[in-house]
Amino acid sequence: MSTATPKHPSITGGCVCESIRYQISFPEGSVYPPNPCTCQCTTCRKHSGALIVHFITVQLPQITWLSPTNSDSPPNRPSEIHTSSKAVRYFCAKCGTSLAFKLLELDELELMAGTLDEDVLNGPHATELTRPIGAQFFCKRVIEGTTDFIMKSEDADLKKSIKWVEDSSEGKKLD
Ligand SMILES: [Zn+2]
Ligand SMILES: [Zn+2]
Fold first, then answer.
1. What does the alpha-carbon distance between residue 154 and residue 156 come to, in Å, rounded to a whole number?
2. What's the gap in Å between 42 CA and the centre of ligand 2?
3. What are the average pLDDT values for consecutive 10-residue runs of the chain, which has 175 residues?
4. What is the pLDDT of residue 172?
5. Confidence (pTM)
6. Measured in Å, how far apart are the chain's first and last C-alpha atoms?
7. Residue 135: which residues within 8 A CB-CB, separation 6 or more?
8. What pLDDT, on a 0 to 100 scale, did the predictor assign at position 1?
9. What domains are there in the chain, each with its CATH number?
10. How many angstroms does the Cα of residue 44 sit away from the middle of ligand 2?
11. For residues 100 and 48, what is the distance between their CA atoms, to the nearest angstrom?
12. Which of 41, 65, 85, 139 has the greatest number of beta carbons closer than 10 A?
């Protein structure tokens, strides 16, 4: 293990009731920014209550589950629910916060960016961490005039982001 200071500071987040807390580190060689993307599929919408869900992608070894805030008790792990045969969603069983989505076949989490702490989302790295330059999923569910701004953005990086009609396994990209 290298003891060199990682180039990017670690970030923290958790659920509303703060019983589930996590830290994401960015060791040398990890992807940064962590593939920020959005999804507008029905399951993301219903599970989160948001019209657009913003994710960042982290490899499982990048995540450390922390003790609840103001507590020395061992870290709590999120509860899991299988929302399809391919995927599981992580949430807090106490307060209901949606935390992450995981494809069973991958050792990575799509972490809901809205669960990052305020000091991260209002901090100096917020834009690079969350601007969805990675991909936009389920563009076919876009709501005209409400959630189509990402597809219509003139921002050069967002223009380059991959706009999937559904998810990437289905394979069709928006023209
Ligand atoms: Zn909670
Ligand atoms: Zn989705």
1. 6
2. 7
3. 74 98 96 96 96 97 96 96 94 98 96 98 96 94 94 90 85 71
4. 77
5. 0.92
6. 44
7. 35, 37, 38, 161, 162, 163, 164, 168
8. 52
9. 8-163 (2.170.150.70)
10. 4
11. 10
12. 139
